[in-house]
Design a protein that fits this description.
With 217 residues, the protein is α/β, with parallel strands linked by helices. The protein is 47% helix and 15% strand. The structure holds BIS(adenosine)-5'-pentaphosphate (AP5) and zinc ion. Its main location: cytoplasm.
Length: 217
């Protein structure tokens, strides 16, 4: 399957994407994780992305689209993928459409995770991620690691993301409403949007997502 996951910051996209990708046997492609991997390797792309991310703004389309395209062209993405955090505005959605068209493939669904603002703020405030692999995500109260400050998966140290400060979160939410939400209408026009609530336990949300995707078949 080829799926786009959309939803406000902190809705649980990364958390659900990891699980859904495993169940559906498709790679989880997160542009946020790709940028963070570049930041930790101190690449030129990482240096550029960090300044935008720390302010809560979108990284420019040109570099983001090139990075996403490069990742989608890897052999493991030939039979499907779950995009998390891309596209994030209408011009990225148009670029993705172009790419899919040249490869004669289509999206199967755009899964829209809906969560109220007070909940996403709580989720972001308690989030801790792994230094070794930013797809290993915990929450100090909702899904605490077995040992405080240590990743259950790989033993890496846990830290709070630089863009999880109150001020940056406010900007990220605004950017979501003004720039990312319009892609929901863009994809509604293509009949691809499936909206589910992101509230409830992580497992419940995964079940809800799988049922919604199953219903499309
Ligand atoms: P990105 O990394 O994509 O961040 P985001 O969209 O802001 O989303 P988050 O990672 O904050 O949240 P999430 O929805 O994945 O939630 P999570 O699963 O972690 O992007 C970061 C930045 O990179 C952007 O601001 C931008 O600068 C740049 N960028 C990325 N892509 C770009 C693009 N395409 N174009 C331009 N710039 C781009 O969950 C949150 C917390 O809640 C965790 O602690 C988790 O444990 C907990 N949790 C999850 N589910 C539940 C549940 N059901 N119940 C209780 N707690 C839960
Ligand atoms: Zn880890």
């Amino acid at each position: 399957m080829r799926i786009v996951l959309v939803g406000p910051p902190g809705a649980g996209k990364g958390t659900q994407a990891t699980r859904l990708a495993e169940k559906l046997r498709i790679p989880h492609i997160s542009t946020g994780d790709l940028f963070r991997a570049n930041i930790s390797r101190q690449t030129e792309l990482g240096k550029l992305a960090k300044s935008y991310m720390d302010a809560g703004n979108l990284v420019p389309d040109e570099v983001t689209i090139a990075m996403a395209k490069d990742r989608m062209e890897q052999p493991d993405a030939e039979c499907g993928f779950l995009l998390d955090g891309f596209p994030r505005n209408v011009s990225q959605a148009e670029a993705l459409d172009e790419l899919l068209k040249t490869e004669s493939i289509q999206l199967d669904a755009v899964l829209d995770l809906e969560a109220p603002e007070d909940e996403v703020v709580k989720r972001i405030a308690g989030r801790r991620i792994c230094r070794k692999d930013s797809s290993h995500v915990f929450h100090v109260s909702y899904s605490p690691p077995k040992k405080e400050g240590v990743c259950d998966v790989c033993g890496g140290g846990l830290y709070q993301r630089d863009d999880d400060t109150e001020e940056t979160v406010r900007t990220r939410l605004e950017v979501y409403h003004t720039q990312t939400e319009p892609i929901i209408d863009y994809y509604k026009a293509q009949g691809l949007v499936v909206t589910i609530s992101a509230l409830g336990a992580v497992d419940e949300v995964t079940e809800r997502a799988l049922e919604a995707l199953e219903a499309l078949k």
